[in-house]
Amino acid sequence: MNRIFVYLFCLISLLLCAVETLAGEERSEPLPDGLSEQTQLCVLCHRKYTPGIVDDWLTSRHSKITPEIALSKPVLERRISSEVIPESLRSVVVGCYECHGQNPSAHKDNFDHFGFKINVVVSPNDCKTCHPTEADQYSVSKKANALDILQKNPLYHTFVETIPGLKEVKGDKITLLKASEYTKAETCYACHGTLVTVNGMKKVSTEIGVIEVPALTNWPNQGVGRINPDGSRGACTPCHARHSFSIEIARKPYTCSQCHLEPDVPAFNVYQESKHGNIFFSKQYEWNWNNVPWRIGKDFKAPTCATCHNSLITTSDGKVVVSRTHDFGSRLWVRIFGLIYSHPQPKDGRTYLIKNKDGLPIPTAFTGEPASEYLIDKNEQLLRQAEMKKICQCCHNSDWVNLHFSKFDSTIAETDKMSLVATQLLLKAWNEGLADPSNPFDEMIEHKWMKQWFFYANSIRYASAMGGSDYASFKNGWWYLTTNLEEMLDLIQTQKERK
Amino acid sequence: MNRIFVYLFCLISLLLCAVETLAGEERSEPLPDGLSEQTQLCVLCHRKYTPGIVDDWLTSRHSKITPEIALSKPVLERRISSEVIPESLRSVVVGCYECHGQNPSAHKDNFDHFGFKINVVVSPNDCKTCHPTEADQYSVSKKANALDILQKNPLYHTFVETIPGLKEVKGDKITLLKASEYTKAETCYACHGTLVTVNGMKKVSTEIGVIEVPALTNWPNQGVGRINPDGSRGACTPCHARHSFSIEIARKPYTCSQCHLEPDVPAFNVYQESKHGNIFFSKQYEWNWNNVPWRIGKDFKAPTCATCHNSLITTSDGKVVVSRTHDFGSRLWVRIFGLIYSHPQPKDGRTYLIKNKDGLPIPTAFTGEPASEYLIDKNEQLLRQAEMKKICQCCHNSDWVNLHFSKFDSTIAETDKMSLVATQLLLKAWNEGLADPSNPFDEMIEHKWMKQWFFYANSIRYASAMGGSDYASFKNGWWYLTTNLEEMLDLIQTQKERK
Amino acid sequence: MNRIFVYLFCLISLLLCAVETLAGEERSEPLPDGLSEQTQLCVLCHRKYTPGIVDDWLTSRHSKITPEIALSKPVLERRISSEVIPESLRSVVVGCYECHGQNPSAHKDNFDHFGFKINVVVSPNDCKTCHPTEADQYSVSKKANALDILQKNPLYHTFVETIPGLKEVKGDKITLLKASEYTKAETCYACHGTLVTVNGMKKVSTEIGVIEVPALTNWPNQGVGRINPDGSRGACTPCHARHSFSIEIARKPYTCSQCHLEPDVPAFNVYQESKHGNIFFSKQYEWNWNNVPWRIGKDFKAPTCATCHNSLITTSDGKVVVSRTHDFGSRLWVRIFGLIYSHPQPKDGRTYLIKNKDGLPIPTAFTGEPASEYLIDKNEQLLRQAEMKKICQCCHNSDWVNLHFSKFDSTIAETDKMSLVATQLLLKAWNEGLADPSNPFDEMIEHKWMKQWFFYANSIRYASAMGGSDYASFKNGWWYLTTNLEEMLDLIQTQKERK
User: Fold this and answer.
1) How close is the nearest chain A Cα to the Cα of B93, in Å?
2) Which of B122, C63, C176, C201 has the least C-beta neighbours within 10 A?
3) Are B216 and A407 in contact (CB under 8 A)?
4) Which range (A27-41, A162-176, C351-365) has the least confidence?
């Protein structure tokens, strides 16, 4: 750090503040204790130039608790998982510099910012200093690999280049142009993440004059599988919104609703119309959203997404029901988001490694057979189901829970059958030359086929899992599973007549 | 009750608790006063094995107020409608055993549970002990008959077996397989209710070992027309969620949203975008959701579903505006949920008794004539409308209210006309052999016809009734009412050409 | 005012009250101080006959603060913009009579109501007495002209008469009947406003007997462009809901959601799934919704619609970020609600004055060229963009903000291209006689064309602007932009074959 520059800057800043105060402007509130020297300087300036995030951070736990204090809590109440916090961070609160100054040498986006070495993008690898268990769990999840999953899987890659790509019409044909990086960034990659690299430096005109900053590609982005300038995969901010990093926000279903929405993944929508959702929406303002561990029946009365999928849950007596996990699929045995059909959860978050029996990089064959060697086995499935049932059984008796999952199993089987019927029609169309299989995502019959499993079969399975009957019935449910088949048949007939 | 078993069980439980306490586990909070001896024993065990519902119940009024105290309130403030509570229940709070131990001889699902005679399913007939007026009103409503309505009406029964049924494709035809009980249970019957019967006993493996419980069919289910193992019809829990039985939850529109959703019954969706909904969503957290009676302007500022459709409403001065009802159609004059067309409300909740002029079990003929002898007459319609207007008039002047309903009347007439146009097209298709009338719910032209009245005409009427203009316009409104007609015409033309 | 009548009325009212009190009815709470003599009399009666609005008003700032006190606040904290309040209004709170008694001679809906000269409809011109800046800004906005925009633009007028109009089928053609005033009032005009005129007097039967009131046309209505009986344009109540006139309600996105909804204007829907929406829905109950000025980071942590589009925003130190505006387009440079294509904001709220290069009253030609002379120039666009960026920069750095808007610009261009492709197909259909251009809104191919720009291209632009990726992808986004093109092509082919 260029000390002379810093002192110079401080001097100028303080001078400016003094001038403004004399000029009659309101004075800022005093800063809380425990800020590092560097963070004090960050805040001194940024409370003027990005005041919203400074104020937001001031409401955070990060701004109030040092890692030392955090570590003094009983293990179950701890919010950090490292036992060994670097000396320089132990006794200061977690401020601007503590996060944006981490691991500068690993960060291609590190730059000199008024004498400080600052990273633009804070990555999971930076958060890992205090939260290593969470970062490690996350790093092997499908979420952390979400961008690779789209880019390294040729089939999904074709999909990404096809749907959001510009189209032209030539004669009676649609011609596909390449999808732009911008459009991919705000469709698929908005949730899956972008590849953020550094393309040298650039000048930006700001309120305090022109400054030089790293020129980032595909930025801004907050997708869960973002590849960061330090080479790490993932982002914590999609769920832990900056700069309050509020556990309340992460625990509320609105967070998940940023991506897990109808028509393809209607998790939030189904929750919204479920009994659990009804109770949540009615009573949320009275619950304790900040307690760690999170006590069922005491802190909350009905589960949110986080309850079942990742939070540390205890009873009101402090008995652990399930441990915290940041590998979000790790409590799941079946993947109801069918590709093409539902299937046991993949063993590895890097699903692009999968090959099905036909050599395609998808977890089931077109005719339904799972690519079993890449998927968890029966034993692991049962273990995970037993783990999940523990949560249900905090409120529901064992018989109730078993029967719920029996119904769910039946629905999985039936919806897969309905996807198979549609796939058989598609195969027929391909075989009879009515459509071209070279790109399976660019023709009318293919789009109808996709709707069958991607929109409708999926919706019904989410509805079955979480008890939202409308999505099983008239809203992307059996009604559409049925009428879509009709439309496929009708289209095939028309195309045959045309031939 | 087998006293020896009970004492033995208590001893063991207490011993276990002691052991756990000595082993260093946290102690439970003390129980509130007023629990019956039996409920104390239930809670002793269930706070370990289903702690969520015990904690939820502990927040309920049931856990705090005895019927005796409940009866000491002024009549308008009472939450129970019986004047004569059985001696054994008068002075204890309403706990596990007080509900799950009611009327054991009537309950085919009663079983010996550690020495107690317990019913798995608490039915409206059990709640009736303290809430007889509500149970009686409910029992004659369409809601209580909601399962019979689907099963005893051959037309609706065909619908239920057709839409959520598995389909196969043979040649260029779709073959319909029977809908499974599981799928019906999570589509139609999720809201309408299932037939819950007892099929002997079965062993269930639980945390405390294998126990024997009644083997229930079509369980779990919380549909409003559930037929219970004691022979009663209905369920209170769809709206009065277990085990807080919170009046706040019942009064909030999220409860109704579990079933009354687009595309067929978009009541919640329309409310959400209405002025009333806007005010509710903005200010709900400041209102008094628990007061009985519920005072307009004082406890709440804008109506929710419950306000207009069933709550006891008074002014802030205590003047009764409308009385409480649990026959949810009883304040309604017209049924805007068209079957096929809107029509005066049925006289009897058992709508499967209706025969229209063509002998079909629906309240209007295909050509629109109402089955008037089964429907309330003009006089009753006017009485009910006058009752509803009283609620509107708490905030809106008489002229405003009259004009609102004049517009509504016009919309009812217009949307019925648009349903008639579609029906005429369907009849034409049937007459010309383009479709087969034997099952009116299994062909493309029939599905488009259904959308006209079931999705679009309905949506517009709900939008008109409650002031949500988007559902009258572009979201399942006139836009679709118009384009769907085009599609019907186009399909008929294609099918003619194919013939 | 007929004094004798008033005194007589008071006497009778008080007598009635006395009788009721003696009869044992509950007594009303005492009224707050500061009510005018007239308002006291209004309330005396209306707390019996429309108690809900009286109670609602009693919670309002209007019922508690006199203009005199309001004016004593520092300028930035003021909620009224007039410096000169008429003497008669200065020292009384803003009650029934203060609003409904304004400018009686201008009001065709003024009538004698128990001795008072009362206007039924309170108009922006009445609110202007205390809020002149807001009324003036509003009066030149597109909102204030929203009804004229539909009625004076022949193209939009055709649209309004076509979509919500009754249809008949004659042979294989759909015949269009005229849309009824009632239906227009609850579809297009529900948001755009109706023409409210006075058609003499009429008798209305009320709880206190038959009274005479003005016979209003197209009433009730709360559209933003309502033309009022005093000749003024607009309505304040769509956002400032009666009779609390709560700034909290106006600032929350539920208010905007009354009109700005999918599929055509999915502003609320996109917000709901955005990061900003997530934070709002999670934390709204802790924010300060009533503070003026509204302090970013202090009173609220994430923007709502009002933050970016019209509120006065300061930092927590009191520095003004943006000034308040009630011309809701005035911070916008581009209009992403395409007609047909996105385009620079119109200079004048009266957009019916626009003529494009083909002489059509729309801001872009069918082939995309903007009607530039009616639209703001590049310089003004940049000024407005800079203004908006100031708000973003309260939390986001300059580079982040610039990159966000670069992506947005790209999306605007791409979606316009996708609208152009659809328009070229429509033009082809018209040219080849497959459809009739005389009414561009009444045929199947035209409806599909409309969906392309009105539903899908719009949705993607809103999604891009506010960061809601689902509306850019599968929910009315690129998926539909793509499949809709296919359907247009398919339809054209079918129609050619039929020819």
Assistant:
1) 20
2) C201
3) no
4) A27-41
Can you give the residue ranges of every domain in chain A? 1-100, 132-238, 253-498
Chain C residues closer than 8 Å to A258 by CB: 273-275, 278, 469
| Shortest CA gap C464–chain A (Å) | 7
CATH superfamily for A253-498 is: Hydroxylamine Oxidoreductase; Chain A, domain 2 (1.20.850.10)
Q: CA of B27: which chain A residue's CA is closest?
A: A317
Give the B:C interface size as CB pairs under 8 Å: 173
The whole-number pLDDT of residue A20 equals 47
Q: A touches which chains (3+ CB pairs under 8 A)?
A: B, C
- Please judge whether C486 and A447 are an interchain contact, meaning their C-beta atoms are less than 8 angstroms apart: yes
CATH 1.20.850.10 holds for C239-498: yes
Q: Which of C118, C170, C177, C183 should we substitute to test contact with B (largest number of B Cβ atoms within 10 Å)?
A: C183
A372: phi then psi, degrees, rounded to nearest 5: -55, -35
Beta-carbon separation of C248 and B283 below 8 A = yes
The radius of gyration computed from the CA coordinates of chain B, to the nearest angstrom, equals: 26
What is the rounded CA–CA span in Å between residue B295 and residue B280? 15
* Cross-chain CB nearest to C489 (options A28, A172, A205): A172
Contacts made by residues C297-300, CB under 8 angstroms, sequence distance 24+: C297/A51, C297/A52, C297/A53, C297/A54, C297/A55, C297/A56, C297/C394, C297/C395, C298/A55
Measured between beta carbons, the chain B residues lying within 8 angstroms of A407 are 182, 185-186
pLDDT tens per residue across span C19-78: 443 444 444 678 889 999 999 999 999 999 999 999 999 999 999 999 999 999 999 999
CB nearest C397 (choices: A25, A50, A168): A50
Write out chain A residues lying below 8 Å of C404, CB-based: 220
- The pLDDT confidence band at residue C172, using thresholds 50, 70 and 90, is confident
Q: Model-level pTM? A: 0.96
CA-nearest residue to B487 within chain C is C444
Q: Would you identify the CATH topology of the domain B240-498?
A: Hydroxylamine Oxidoreductase; Chain A, domain 2 (1.20.850)
ipTM of the complex: 0.95
